[in-house]
Amino acid sequence: MRLVQIKVRNFRCFREEIVVDMDDITVFVGKNDSGKSSLLDAIDIFFSDRGIPEPDDLSVHSTDGNVGITCVFESLPATLVLDEQHPTDLAKEHLLSRARRLEVVKAYDCSGSKGKLTGIYARALHPTAEGYHDLLSLTNAKLKQRAKELKVDLSGVNQTINTDLRRAIWAHCGDLQPEERDVELKTEAAGRVWEQLRKSMPVFALFRSDRPSTDQDAEAQDPMKAAVKQAIKAQEAALTAIAETVRTEVQEIATRTVEKIREMDPELASQLTPRVTNKNWDSLFSVSLTGDEDIPVNKRGSGTRRLILLNFFRAKAEQEAEDRDTGVIYAIEEPETSQHPNHQKLLIDAFEDLAVRPGCQVFLTTHTPVLARRFRQQCLRHVTRDASGTPSVQPGTTDETLRAIQSSLGVLPDHSIKVFLGVEGRNDIDFLCGISAALRTAGEDVPDLRQAEVDGHLVFIPLGGSSMDLWISRLEKLNRPEFYLMDRDNPPPQKPKNQDVADALAARGCTVWVTEKRELENYVHPSLIKAEYPNYPGTGDAFEDVPSLFAQAVHEASESGVPWAEVARDLEKLGRKVSQGKRRLNTEFVRGVTPDRLTATDSKDEVRTWLRSLGAVLSAR
Prior knowledge:
By secondary structure, this protein is α/β, with parallel strands linked by helices. The chain has 3 domains: 2-23 and 46-207, no CATH class; 232-284, no CATH class; 412-619, no CATH class. The chain is built from 21 helices and 18 strands. It has a 6-stranded antiparallel sheet with strand order 2-1-4-7-8-9, covered by helices on one side. Strands 10-11-12-3-13-14 form a 6-stranded mixed sheet, sandwiched between helices. A 4-stranded parallel sheet has the order 16-15-17-18, with helices on both faces. Helix 12 (426-441) runs parallel beside helix 19 and helix 17 crosses helix 19 (571-589).
């Protein structure tokens, strides 16, 4: 299941219900105390079996004392087994919303000294016709009674199965009068539905910004303790035999000792019974991490401690998701905390890699411009509060929101910059850095773009989206050279997709390049791909869809068993596979490009022209 929307009401600063769309990567951007962490805490409470809002979490402006947290899901389980060996699904149980999603509402009463869960509901397009509106809350006996009252013919219906009874009763009604309403899932009868849904929900793992960051932190110890248990389990038979041998020998000595005591003091001996117990094997082991010089994590720098702990956190979340066979949501507050700018970039790359994995989502909060500018605008959510303290969350896809982000955070705090390079997305950055490194290794005189970025002389600006011009509007005043690289996308005689934007930038005096081929992946020689995937159908055509063809080859070479045509019909699954393919093409395969292979795919020498032009600016004093 994939979380696509949250709704929060009466929780902390969010008095009125606020609705936030969630993506594979969602980045909450805003100033301190704007409400970013509160949104993640609300989601954490929803997913946690033990999580209950505290009275202090209730909005100070609340008039009823009730908190509502709603999560909306797509990619729903195909079947639910509510009765033994008799599957049903959410649609047949009338538990989907008008938008064909699963919308689960949790209600809490925080008016007393302690918060409590008062109800779990599915906000669904559900029958309202009299006699047909409450079937999910009825037990088997009451369903039979209801069928009798409504004169439902139960011939051929297995009356021991509640799902079959409900289906027969609903089918009897001419007009169920469906309306979107809250259907209680906490009753005895409907509780089975909630129990099954919980098993399919993703694991939600929240990494807070203010945690202690030591190797004795619970998050750090749990995955290591699990590793110890797993290793012991693998040797369980041998360890049991050792324990039995020791127990037998010690028991024998203890028995002999009591017998010797009996010879001297029978009364004392009668009070003694030999008993040998042993501790759990895993209690004998503790784990900590040390560096090359045996320096404990606790004594390392705060940035290193936090980076290590973050990956402990990931290990634990992934283990739980594997155990439950569900997806996982990583929620990380302020990942930039205590991190060098180079590590911040590495973290962003790691988060984006996670987000394209099947069943993974990443939610982040930040108030620094370095992180905000590296994500696509579709990922951004601007969290603000007006003069009266009323919060709002706006998507980064609107012109107004991007201006507000620029105004509140700024986007370019670094003034040691020599050149700006606007590209369409992260994959283009990887391609350019990878190809420059490959050519330099082969002895060609081109700049190392990755190092130039690390040194702060080159700033990549990912410009994907319809409002790309808003990201670059602030660059005019900084008096630095601007270069822009855009995919052509459309084959001649059609105009390039972004020709109008390219013309506007060129009119401003910027250097603008539009690829002669469809996109940058078309400059990767097909022989590199065929060497690993002989079934790759690409021919090197300038306008073939390389990422899709590559995804098809990878899929067909795997042991998936799902026909590619079926994957192509599932747009979400297809999109993920193509995204994963683009990532690999622009990292793994670009590293294998040689000067000869590049010349073969780039007869007009476009790539070298781009790199040399950038190099001339970067080398200038």
